[in-house]
Amino acid sequence: MKSLWNDEAAAAFADDDLAMRVYTSRLLGSSEDLVMHGGGNTSVKATTRDFFGNEVDVLYVKGSGWDLKTIEKPGFPAIRLKETRMLAELETLSDPDMTQQLRALMLDPTAPSPSVEAILHAILPAKFIDHTHTDAIITLSNNPDGERILAEVFPDCMVLPYIMPGFILSRQVNEAIKRDDPAQYKGIILMHHGVFTYSDNARTAYEDMIELVSRAEAYIAAHGSTALPTASHTVDLMDLARIRKAVSDARGVAQLAVLDQTPDAQGFSDLANVADIATRGPITPDHVIRTKRIPVIIDNKPAAGVPEIEQFAADYRAYFDANGSAELQILDQAPRVGIWRAAGSIAFGSSLKECAIITDIARHTRWAVQVGESVGGWQALPAKDIFDLEYWVLEQAKLGKGGTAKPHQGKVALVTGAYSGIGRASCEALAADGAVVFGLDINPDVVAQLGGGAMTGIVCDLTDSSAIAAAVDEVIKRCGGLDIVVCNAGIFKAGERVESHSEQTWDDTLAINLTATQRLMSATIPYLKLGVSPAMVVIGSRNVAAPGPGAAAYSVSKAGITQLARVAALELAADGVRVNVVHPDAVFDTALWTEEALAQSAARYNMTVQQYKAKNLLGREIRSTEVARLVSTLASDVFAATTGAQIPIDGGNDRVI
Fold it and tell me: Mind listing the domains of the chain with CATH numbers?
């Protein structure tokens, strides 16, 4: 491991201890081999002034919710140093009391809560404290002969047995440093947990961490192997959708299933002994809150219902019964990681961010497991120790901060005609309600238009069946399934009466508005049948109930997809798939309407443009965002008992009524 210290960059922080703390924390956070997704913590001791202007010694320690990779000064709440050290001298201190006391010692009560390791940081007699969960050292500490190996590799470090984080860990370290002066050591290694380095100089604390990790890497290189097996397999996407459905059912809410098909993930899933080495426990207990204790091992061709998921849930209940107590309430019994034989690794979660974190942890775990085996063995902590952290009151408090789930959280939606107008607005409404949304459009700018966050644009010509199939496959590969389909794509060409209708207008309109919708339905229905509370929403038109002259192709195509939706509602009800139609009218903030077209239409009615836009019984303009809100609500459980319906959103049309 290489030091990333830069003299020129660091010089800017030489006179600001907290700024220097931010700088070296980010250096640590930039390497996932040291810390991942909020793991690890750092601190600096300094003097500041309280509200009354009095000088006070404080500990600036990483706050809850901050990541070392991106941390800034506000991520380090200041707590009174003397009183924090006094907490370590108590015989007992409950976790809720520790949290309360640490918050009471904060100079700014609105700052984030201090790390649960704050007391430990306070008692170590050095200015800068660095703590990481480095893969290489944890791999050695998970060896059956780990204590001997660590003593050999780190004679200049204090090595302590695993103990629960928080107050009892602080007490353990406090007693240890009373017996043995930490100044004679370069660092403290906690078995199965991580490493502390410390110094009055920020660079020394940081580069000592790098040097210790490098030693572990050198030992691994000399006694084991980091050349891991790889493989390349195709996967059955319908099987992936079945797995996702089973996990969602087990958790009781929709879950994304993000498949990692990288060569190393597939190579790990090919191992004959993967069911043994992958299910011994996490490489460090901290991971359990993200991944549960073990992954589920899934056969390459899972049977109907995916019985491995049911067995995982049963085993989890047994794990709870063996380690829990009457005052604890069991968590959900669904896995967070799946090892899919000859296919790769699957992360199950309620958001892309959660799945990305789980995927990263799974990647680091399989590295540590395989490398650990090559060095002489791999063993995790006993299940009881993992359970105690999984059900630790402070970890449970983190889970409760998520608030109320959004109506489409964990769901996957596909919207056609997504570049602008109702399609674009529907993408945004569904994403705002928690869905991961894929927007299809023939306009290549849809990729940039929907880039980032929970929305992804895919260029797709809906008149090309193979392009539709490829786009749907891409959605399943990325998220594991499909729950919501919005058939919105369409064109509108008016001004041609039936007797003089051009073949081009007729053919193009029906091809895009009607035939493409049918092809999309055919491609998505098999996955919707495996969706969670699945729904299809078809964007019709007021013209279905009240057609006007000069728009025969458009009116016929919209009537056609309305009838198609009605038939689909009849056919899919037994599978739990709801199919409903929304009939908008006069939605003018779309690409179909130019200023010139609006002016011409308004002139025909001897109206101003604004009067024309509000030409309905309610006298109000209908906007794309309003249609989109209806679409998202119609796809939600608010309409769980509705299918085959046709809902107008037109401000009231006297001809329809």
Answer: 7-223 (3.40.225.10), 237-402 (3.40.225.10), 412-587+624-649 (3.40.50.720)
What is residue 160's three-state secondary structure?
A: strand
Tell me what the mean pLDDT of segment 355-371 comes to: 97
Secondary structure (3-state) at 617:
coil
pLDDT, position 595: 86
Answer for the pair 255, 248: CB distance below 8 angstroms, yes or no: yes
Query: Other CB atoms closer than 10 Å to residue 617's CB: what's the count?
Result: 12
Q: Tell me, what's the pLDDT at 361?
A: 96
Instruction: Indicate the burial class of 406 (C-beta count within 10 angstroms; 0-12, 13-18, 19 or more).
Output: middle
| Mean pLDDT value across the chain | 95
Side by side, the strands of the sheet bearing 296-298 are: 256-260, 344-349, 337-340, 296-298
Q: Active-site residue among 198, 219, 554, 612?
A: 554
Q: Is 554 a catalytic residue?
A: yes
Instruction: Give the CB-side neighbour count of residue 217, counting CA atoms within 13 A.
Output: 12
Q: What is the mean pLDDT of residues 262-288?
A: 96
pLDDT per residue as tens digits for the range 512-560:
999 999 999 999 999 999 999 999 999 999 999 999 888 899 999 999 9
Distance of CA 238 to the CA centre of its chain: 22
Within 13 Å and on the Cβ side, how many CA atoms surround 616?
Answer: 19
Estimate to the nearest angstrom the gap between the alpha carbon of 604 and the chain centroid. Answer: 52
Give the Cα separation of 387 and 292 in Å (integer). 9
The Cα 254–Cα 241 span in angstroms is 12
Nearest to 113, CA basis, from 128, 95, 131, 125: 95
Q: Are 438 and 461 in contact (CB under 8 A)?
A: no
The predicted pLDDT at position 393 comes to 82
